[in-house]
Give the backbone structure.
Amino acid sequence: MDCEIVDGNPRDSILYEGRLSSGEERLWATGPDMVTDGGYASLSNQEKAKEYGIVNIVFNKLVGSLKNVVTSVQMETRLKKWRSGIEAVISNLKRGFHLFRCEWKGRDHFDAKVLWSVIAYNIRVMTGFMLGKLVPQPR
């Protein structure tokens, strides 16, 4: 849905609200559920998510006395499993499109490498889905 390349290596926790507002701007509304990497885990980020109307807030790794905010244990499990699936996508991008190291020189070339890799990955996924629909299914 979105790909943002930031300058430097900022902490995840300071990028959280930007992700919330970006989702709202691009998707016209944030969904009721959000699961993120443990780097985003903080009480202030949890409060920001509540302000955006997010009901189920799950951080992959909790810090201190912070607890996930969920309507049920089943919802927490579903969101954690969904997050595991996202890790597979990230791994596929890194290995399949060589994003673990970019040897293209300059910021513009780096940005192009990342964005074109994301586009190519999405085309590959959509093509695989469509080819699966074209193959005759056994009756």
